[in-house]
Design goal:
Elements (H helix, E strand, L loop, with lengths): L7 E5 L7 H9 L2 E7 L5 H18 L4 E6 L4 E2 L2 E4 L1 E3 L4 E6 L2 E4 L4 E4 L2 H6 L5 E4 L4 E9 L2 E6 L3 E3 L4 E4 L11 H12 L4 E4 L5 H13 L5 E6 L2 H5 L1 H7 L2 E5 H7 L5 H14 L4 E4 L14 H13 L3 E4 L1 H4 L4 H18 L10 H15 L4 E6 L4 H7 L5 E6 L2 H7 L5 E5 L5 H14 L8 E8 L3 E8 L5
Parallel strand pairs: 1-2, 1-19, 2-3, 3-15, 5-8, 7-9, 15-16, 16-17, 17-18, 18-19, 20-21, 20-23, 21-22
Antiparallel strand pairs: 4-14, 6-13, 7-12, 10-11, 10-14, 11-12, 23-24
Length: 466
């Protein structure tokens, strides 16, 4: 992999990317994190993927983040033996249950009793990222008759949204609790909560994690009307925000999605929090080796907005060209970053102001690198929030901290075990010299934050690597 990009790439693991060979190739091409969707598969399969990713870390010599995606209060159909194909005007039935034959029987299983209690005649059900719409024409007990308003191909475990209606489901289901325990037991780096409605949903999840003695970052997926309305409280409670455009497109008109993405990214970035854009990044590459021009423009827009990472979903999980998708995404990111520096926001707190001063010093002095040794892991995200135009390398003694930071904009992580900040910087510089990353004659900025709010910035010219 030549050169580097600041906008990180996250790939979803699935049948197309479940081997060591493919995952190693994706990581070598620049993927910084991998997502496991807990809506599909089961623990033994997820565990095998985790083992492959951790083995890949050793192979490529850098940390990789793993994100476990909790289903949350979503509505998903059960398992269909055969897909159901509908044309506009066709009628199907949704019945309470886990499985159904599907196909010409046109019976859709739904294992969530609450839906049958709240849905009403005339409601619109939306599926497949907004492409499929069904109108409820009759509700009788645990059976719902629907009429297709659009062409539809319905497959297992697909999400359903009841348009303009909140079914009032709990933030976490029993299955979510099982998946959360799995994530903590297997030392995942983040858990993402789907269908977040407000900051209290994230607070509940964080409390559960603390009660289990866990240490994992929490990402909030913004995909409902309630989440957009309560965005400020969600950003405040979350470690990372994800613009989940698929389900946003089922809750809003598609023409609203560009405006919503811009709003969510702006509000998250101005508060100094990392933000990821996900869903349909290069979706045509599920079946084709080259993206569309519209997809290239979409990626360019997200990069210019300054997002921390772009998350591939079906492209790498079930697509025919997972490696090509990552190659294209990295190529687009790199070209746009060469031309458009990201917008900078004024710091909104003391630590961010310190981080901003590090970045400003490095840029004004035309330094070659910003070097930081971090123990607590709180300073590097604030440096990233200042969007440095100088390459920023972070030394971290705790590999779990390194994995958490690796998907944040512009941060290059090195696992360096040290006895303190000064020892950590010394060892980091020695390692970078050995690898040919820094050279004599270059100006570098060294920084760290000690206890009791002691902030240190050192300007140093490299006279040698001894």
């Amino acid at each position: 992999m030549t050169g580097y990009v600041n906008t990180k790439i996250i790939a979803t693991v699935g049948p197309s990317s479940s081997s060591f060979e493919v995952i190693e190739q994706l990581a070598s091409l620049g993927v910084s994190g991998f997502r496991i969707n807990f809506a599909h598969g089961e623990p033994s399969l997820w565990k095998s993927w985790i083992e492959i990713i951790r083995e890949t870390e050793k192979s490529i010599g850098r940390p990789l983040a793993i994100i476990g995606d909790l289903v949350g209060p979503s509505i998903r159909i059960g398992v269909l033996e055969e897909p159901i194909t509908l044309s506009p005007g066709d009628v199907a039935e949704i019945v309470y249950g886990e499985k159904a034959k599907g196909g010409s029987e046109r019976i859709i299983p739904l294992p969530l009793r609450r839906v049958f209690e709240v849905v009403e005649e005339g409601d619109i059900l939306v599926m497949n990222d907004g492409r499929v719409k069904l109108r409820v024409i009759d509700v009788r007990g645990l059976r719902i008759r629907v009429e297709a308003l659009t062409p539809a191909r319905i497959t297992s475990r697909k999400a359903i949204v009841i348009l303009n209606r909140d079914p009032g489901l709990p933030a976490l289901t029993e299955r979510d609790m099982q998946c959360l325990r799995f994530a903590l037991d297997n030392e995942l780096d983040y858990v993402a909560l789907s269908y977040v409605r407000g900051g209290e949903d994230i607070a509940v999840l964080k409390t559960l994690i603390a009660n289990e003695g866990g240490d994992v970052g929490v990402a909030a997926k913004i995909e409902t009307r309630s989440a957009v309305e309560n965005l400020s409280s969600i950003i405040e409670e979350s470690d990372i925000v994800i613009v989940a455009r698929g389900d946003l497109g089922m809750n809003y008109g598609l023409e609203e999605i560009p405006l919503l993405q811009e709003h969510i990214v702006y509000e998250t970035r101005r508060r100094g929090k990392p933000v990821i854009v996900a869903t349909q990044i290069l979706e045509s590459m599920i079946d084709n080796p080259v993206p569309t021009r519209a997809e290239v423009m979409d990626v360019a827009t997200a990069v210019k907005q300054g997002v921390d990472a772009l998350m591939l979903t079906g492209e790498t999980a079930i697509g025919k060209y997972p490696v090509e998708a990552v190659k294209w995404l990295r190529k687009i990111i790199r070209r746009i970053e060469e031309r458009y520096p990201p917008q900078k926001f004024p710091p909104s707190d003391h630590q961010w102001a310190y981080a901003s001063s590090i970045v400003e010093t490095a840029e004004r002095l035309n330094a070659s690198h910003i070097l930081v040794y971090s123990i607590g892991g709180t300073l590097p995200p604030k440096i990233a929030a200042s969007r440095p135009l100088v390459k920023t390398i972070i030394g971290v003694g705790d590999v779990a901290r390194a994995r958490r930071l690796v998907i944040v904009w512009g941060l290059h992580l090195r696992h360096v075990v040290a006895e303190g900040y000064e020892d950590g910087l010394h060892k980091l510089i020695k390692e970078l010299c050995r690898d040919g990353e820094i050279h004599p004659g270059e100006l570098i900025i060294k920084a760290y934050r000690e206890a009791h709010n002691k902030h240190v910035i050192i300007v140093e010219k490299m006279y040698g690597c001894n």
